[in-house]
């Protein structure tokens, strides 16, 4: 048999209503997670997840704790059905959820941490407006070259933020720089350029403005050594311990998410089934394009959970 990885999504996978179907099917999630989250954050947070509006969910101060909470609730349901991972990984913000799964962080502490992360990142956007865009159909070196050209022409920061799959590269930076980058890659034969539903320029040097404050927030949270392998989204390096987990989260604030490398590292180590834990389907699609032939499953609603449980049981029964 192969190995199973739980993978946790980040910003961009949020949607109004996320998590509600799971709560209706498994009511204990309300008392275990959503009710306490409302108390921790001090406002009716769960109502924003379930009722919106979408504009509120797009605010990084809301998106980040919302994605973590809904992922942790989905994790609870999967564990309730006896599903456990051999390894975990998370895309960007999702790495915090992966650390919760691996016992590195308590979910309550993680919720407070990502709320602070979202607040700090929002403060940068308020000072220096920026955005992110996904370039489809060009390679990482090609997009990197165009980033340099766009930065030189505009004087703006525009940098690689994510390498999501072999021909999907996300850029991040100031508005004019990203706009110019989009023009350049469009003229160079990119299949598509997509503006992302992210509230600011994540994973670029602009976030260095709040690195010290985020380091303080990390130091205020108890971290523990992982109980199972955690592959960092920053290239697939294995998390060695509590302090290393902190270092990786801090570095990721301004550094690239190298999801392509992370998935390749996991498959090289025998992972052939990826279960996306939380809302959306983006990570499953990326994993399938990076490593054709792997199995990808989801857990965003009750039907998906049932399909995932049945697929795992069939696979284990056939092994």
Q: Helices, strands, pairings?
A:
Elements: E1 3-8, H1 20-25, H2 28-41, H3 45-51, H4 54-57, H5 60-80, E2 87-90, H6 94-101, H7 107-127, E3 130-136, H8 140-154, E4 158-165, E5 168-174, H9 175-187, E6 192-195, H10 211-219, E7 230-231, H11 242-254, H12 259-268, E8 271-276, H13 282-290, E9 295-297, H14 302-318
Parallel strand pairs: 1-2, 1-8, 2-7, 8-9
Antiparallel strand pairs: 3-5, 3-6, 4-5
Helix pairs in contact: 2-5, 5-6, 5-7, 7-10, 8-9, 10-11
Features:
52% helix; 15% strand; globular; 319 residues; alpha/beta; 4-stranded antiparallel β-sheet
Short description:
The chain is of the alpha/beta class and 319 residues long. The protein contains 14 helices and nine strands.
The number of helical segments is 14
Overall geometry? globular
Strand content: 5-15%
Largest beta sheet: strand ordering: 7-2-1-8-9
SSE order, one letter for each helix or strand: EHHHHHEHHEHEEHEHEHHEHEH
Please compute the radius of gyration using only Cα atoms.
Answer: 19 Å
Structural class: alpha/beta
Instruction: Find the count of extended strands (DSSP E, 2+ residues).
Output: 9
Percent of residues in helices comes to 40-55%
Major beta-sheet overview: 5 strands, parallel
Residue ranges: pLDDT <50 for 5 or more in a row?
A: none
Name the average pLDDT. Answer: 96
* End-to-end distance: 6 Å
């Amino acid at each position: 048999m192969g190995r199973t990885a739980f993978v946790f999504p980040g910003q961009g996978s949020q949607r109004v209503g996320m998590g509600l179907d799971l709560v209706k099917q498994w009511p204990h999630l309300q008392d275990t997670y959503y009710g306490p989250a409302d108390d921790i954050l001090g406002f009716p947070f769960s109502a924003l997840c379930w009722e919106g509006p979408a504009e509120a969910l797009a605010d990084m101060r809301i998106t980040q704790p919302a994605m973590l909470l809904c992922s942790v609730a989905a994790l609870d349901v999967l564990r309730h059905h006896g599903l456990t991972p051999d390894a975990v990984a998370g895309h960007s913000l999702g790495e915090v959820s992966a650390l919760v799964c691996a016992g590195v962080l308590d979910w309550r502490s993680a919720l407070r941490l990502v709320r602070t992360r979202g607040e700090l990142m929002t403060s940068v956007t308020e000072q220096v407006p920026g955005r992110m865009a996904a370039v489809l159909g060009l390679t990482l070196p090609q997009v990197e070259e165009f980033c340099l050209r766009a930065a030189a022409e505009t004087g703006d920061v525009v940098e690689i933020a994510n390498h999501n799959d072999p021909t999907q590269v996300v850029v991040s930076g100031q508005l004019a720089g990203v706009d110019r980058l989009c023009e350049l890659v469009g003229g160079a034969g990119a299949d598509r350029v997509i503006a992302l539903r992210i509230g600011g320029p994540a994973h670029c040097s602009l976030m260095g403005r709040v690195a010290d404050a985020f380091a303080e927030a990390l130091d205020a949270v108890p971290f523990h050594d992982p109980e199972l392998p955690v592959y960092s989204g920053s290239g697939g390096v294995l998390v060695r311990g509590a302090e290393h987990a902190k270092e990786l989260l801090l570095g990721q604030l301004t550094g690239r998410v190298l999801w392509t490398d992370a998935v390749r590292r996991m498959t090289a180590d025998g992972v052939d089934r990826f279960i996306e834990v939380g809302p959306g389907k983006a990570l499953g699609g990326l994993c399938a394009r990076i490593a054709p032939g792997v199995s990808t499953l989801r857990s965003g609603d009750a039907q998906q959970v049932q399909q995932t449980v049945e697929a795992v049981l069939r696979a284990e029964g056939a092994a």
